[in-house]
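Hi U.,

Before I forget, here's the chain from the pilot set. I'm dumping it here mostly so it's searchable later in email.
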Amino acid sequence: MAKRVGVDKWLFGTVFLLVLFGLVMVFSTSAVMAKETLGSPYAFVGRQALWALLGLACMTVLMQVDYRRYNSYGVVVTSVAITTVLLLGVFAMHGMNGAHRWIRVAGTTLQPSELAKPVIVLFLAYFLQTRIHAMDDVKGTILRAVLPSLVFIALILKEPDLGTALVCAGVTALMLYLAGAQVKYFVIAAAAASPLLYYMLFHVAFRRARMLAFINPDLDPRGAGFHILQSLIAVGTGGVFGRGLMEGVQKLFYLPEPHTDFIFATVCEELGLVGAIAIVALFVMLGYRGLRAAVLSTDPFARFLAFGITTAILIQAFFNMSVVLSLVPTKGITLPLISSGGTSVFITLASLGILLNITREID
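Structure:
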């Protein structure tokens, strides 16, 4: 198959538009809050812009690096080891809002769980490329494939961060399914995980409150139901064309985390249904071009890598939008490339740089 001269321009353009859209919305959602709390309306967007520029620079570099360089035992083992150490390192730091998710370095914070997602993809791509015809070997293939994921998920749950843990679990399951794992293994895994998931949802106080609020947020409108009610108000008042950029009301200390977890609610309020559809369309395009690269790749490693990178982004976007629309219970998870979060945007763009390099190999 002929080698592509350049990267997938549709994918590159889509990524650039998502980052640009994200910067605009981070400023819109955070300006008032940043002015009140930090003294400058540009505090959050300035930091996000810096990370976005670093991420775009990294993406540009990785676009030129042959993805086959990552198909190495040393690279994979080192990546898994570093990620494990960083996930353990968060527990040595002081917690923020009752959670241990960040490592503070030189005046900034890093979130190792963001790194866990692409490292899981890298490990599975490396491991499964030669195991496609041995997917019925439970001990030699299935259990060995899921071991790093289980370690990462356990550490992320301990932080606690159920949303990111579910993304990691979803990516792992989809990559195993792509490799040919039988459905019965997923049924067994789901049955085994159900008691733990039930305990975490209904026997951990703050999650139980979120579950009850999801079922009926009006039972506690000023407590557990506050987040989702304010989100639905923002979505509902946006109408078709929205109130206008910067004209949103719910972000003014009503909507919690308007620049991170609930940024999509402000998109709906300020830009309406049109803006929401535009965001969804961009993610659909990203998904289409990424999965297209996976389908057309003749190299199994590239196929798994492209599929994993793409699905990790799509799963996270789906969860975030679903929370905003009250389709799933509230959980702290950002909208990729849109929400404020330096580690998230940098790691996502770096991963997309690898995906863009893979697109050089297809017609």
